[in-house]
Design a protein that fits this description.
Number of strands: 0
Order of helices and strands: HHHH
Shape: globular
Strand content: under 5%
Largest sheet: none
Radius of gyration: 14 Å
């Protein structure tokens, strides 16, 4: 995300490669980044359409900056995505 590249496809878990689940805030930001990148629009356009400052969109796409889940959910919905959460037993 920092370099502006596509996110890599997740690898399948195996005995040699355990499943790694990112923290929820990182997973949400990665989903937003991927949806925004796939949409091919500018950060300025996303900000305008969400009626927020461009600096807020930059923070939403920055993994090092905290963003409320509801804010990311709103942006993802505008990009045609829906957030779902699955709760399961810890390994």
């Amino acid at each position: 995300m920092r370099e502006g590249n596509d996110l890599p496809e997740p690898a399948r878990a195996s005995k040699r490669r355990p499943l790694i689940v990112p923290p929820l805030p990182i997973a949400l930001k990665a989903a937003l980044y991927d949806a925004w990148h796939q949409a091919g629009i500018s950060q300025c356009r996303l900000a305008r359409d969400l009626d927020v400052a461009e600096s807020e969109v930059r923070r939403m796409l920055n993994a090092d900056h905290a963003t409320k889940a509801a804010t990311i959910d709103r942006a993802l919905r505008w990009l045609g995505k829906r957030v779902t959460v699955t709760i399961s037993k810890a390994a």
